[in-house]
Design brief:
two-stranded antiparallel ribbon; Beta-lactam-related; eight-stranded antiparallel sheet; Beta-lactamase
Length: about 425
């Protein structure tokens, strides 16, 4: 791992970044990288229009190919009240876009022989040795959810693929779902270790390996990283990923980034009349949530995305070996595990993956592309066949009045439309 740290400065120099510079610049003519300038002009106009009509407060997007930036698009405001513009250096909550970072951290330790994909989770977090599976998702007449021992052992691979049986905070139709909400890891007190004890006491939805279900799995992986590396998760990510890649505005805590809390974007929500108002309950976890706790900027996250697009390396810094990244970005979950809503896509380790279309079906995207987004409508995707990486940031709270379209539904097709290469 020391090699990755030592070569950080070389990578930044190779990519045209300096260790202390936050802003980045696009090439003078995107045609040099194989893009259509008119398509980028159309993207700019579309984001300007969406910001003007308050679909979102603002946007910052970066499209790159290889280790060079082809286009930067900025629209609207990071703070509507002050009129501060939304730029690629505006810090935002990236929520579940933390998950691919945690997956990368885990796979780094797999490469180093400190973690095994098929290791029991209890090898790292002993409380998971006693986990139980719910017999029914509803409580019985005594108000209790009956449980049984699991038929399979929860492994690191299950965590990476969201097939661990764990729940999350988005399902409130069953008593088990409500139990997870009542015991949310995002409330209460305690560090990551203490919260794992809390989580392991909750029943699983099903046996590990049975079904894909969005969950706290990446938070558990964060604790696995801590135990295996002997470092707090925030320190491991800082020294092994963020510092080598020059991501100085990415972290879990304000002590770890180069901006103050006052610089953070407010989180906005749509009122009934469609206007944007500040969301009063916006918060950042006070613990290192590998599933949703990072803050970042477009100019930082594009470095991470370019590393993924370039087979695990940025300049002379290698974060993952090509074969490890290929495993991470390949389908790891069966169609039966995913269910019907995933037609055309599968799931790898921390990212979704576009599959070749079935006969007669519309493609879900370019086969082999992989991506993930965040709850506040941030998004990124990687197109390995073309070395393209693309990131877009905004900041909107989900709610009953949230305006459509979702940012990814606008951004991804317009980026694909800019491709002027085979």
């Amino acid at each position: 791992m020391a090699f990755r740290i030592a070569t950080a400065a070389l990578a930044l120099a190779a990519c045209g970044f300096t260790a202390h510079a936050q802003s980045i610049e696009a090439v003078p003519d995107p045609r040099a990288l194989g893009f259509d300038p008119a398509a980028f002009e159309a993207l700019d106009a579309r984001l300007d229009a969406l910001a003007a009509e308050q679909a979102r407060p603002g946007y910052a997007a970066i499209i790159a190919r290889g280790d060079r930036v082809a286009h930067i698009s900025e629209a609207g405001f990071i703070n509507i009240e002050t009129g501060a513009p939304f730029t690629v250096d505006s810090p935002v909550r990236i929520a579940s876009m933390s998950k691919p970072v945690t997956a990368v951290a885990t796979m780094m330790l797999v490469e180093d022989g400190l973690v095994g994909l098929d290791d029991p989770v209890s090898d790292y977090i002993p409380a998971f040795a006693d986990v139980e599976v719910a017999v029914s998702l509803m409580a019985d007449e005594t108000g209790e959810i009956q449980t049984r021992p699991p038929e399979t052992v929860m492994t690191v691979r299950h965590l990476l693929t969201h097939t661990s049986g764990l729940g999350y905070i988005f399902e409130n139709q069953t008593d088990l779902g409500r139990l997870y909400i009542e015991n949310s890891l995002y409330s209460g007190e305690g560090n990551l270790e203490a919260r794992m004890e809390q989580l392991a006491a909750l029943p699983l939805y099903n046996d590990p390996g049975d079904t894909w279900q969005y969950s706290y799995a990446n938070d558990v992986l964060g604790r696995v990283v801590e135990v295996a590396s002997g470092m707090p998760l925030e320190d491991f990510m800082e020294t092994e990923i963020f510092e080598p890649l020059g991501m100085h505005a990415t972290g879990f805590f304000f002590d770890d980034v180069n901006f103050d809390e006052a610089d953070m974007s407010p989180l906005y929500v749509h009122a009934e009349d469609g206007s944007l108002v500040e969301y009063a309950e916006a918060f950042m976890p006070d613990w290192a949530s590998g599933g949703g706790g990072l803050v970042s900027t477009a100019s930082d996250y594009i470095r991470f995305a370019m590393m993924l697009a370039n087979d695990g390396a940025l300049g002379d810094v290698r974060i993952l070996e090509p074969e490890t990244l290929a495993l991470m970005a390949s389908p790891q979950v069966t169609a039966e595990q995913l269910g019907e809503s995933w037609q055309g896509r599968s799931y790898g380790f921390g990212v979704d993956v576009v599959l070749p279309p079935a006969e007669g079906a519309d493609p879900a995207g370019v086969p082999g592309d992989f991506s993930w987004g965040g709850m506040f409508d941030t998004d990124f995707f990687i197109s390995p066949a073309t070395d393209v990486s693309a990131v877009i940031m905004t900041q909107i709270q989900p709610g009953p009045n949230r305006a459509e379209p979702r940012t990814s539904a606008v951004f991804r097709p317009m980026v694909y439309a800019s491709f002027a290469f085979d």
